[in-house]
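Lab notebook, bench 4. Still working through the backlog of constructs that have no structural model yet. Next entry is a single chain of 128 residues. Request: give me the structure tokens for it.
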Amino acid sequence: MLKIDAGSAVPVYEQLKRQIKLKVISGKYQPDSKLPSIRQLASELKINPNTIAKVYRQLERENILYSKTGSGFFVKKEQDELNKARTKLLNEFTDEFISKVVELGFSPDILKNKLSKQIERVMNNDKA
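Model written out:
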């Protein structure tokens, strides 16, 4: 289920694009699966259909989706392209996170130390 936070500082277009990309890259949207039609998704999310069309076209240019005339948009199945998109998304999230931490006034050393501890804690919880 895709959700839009109208109160977010992140534009609706970007929220939608990130969510779809994340669902494709994480495997929640399987290769060759059909995405909701532009009209259907616009109705569900109560946003302009042009916004959805723009997102779908952008994801098509990024080789995450492909379109079939008259049938709609589908998830690409080429793993190399999805892995590139996955890495790019990781970089975007990491850059955004680091920028916010720096904005809060933390040093790189504090960030590295905190991340090391958090990674260790998460990894140990997964093994328990």
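Notes after review: The mean pLDDT is 89. The radius of gyration is 18 Å. Flag for follow-up if needed.
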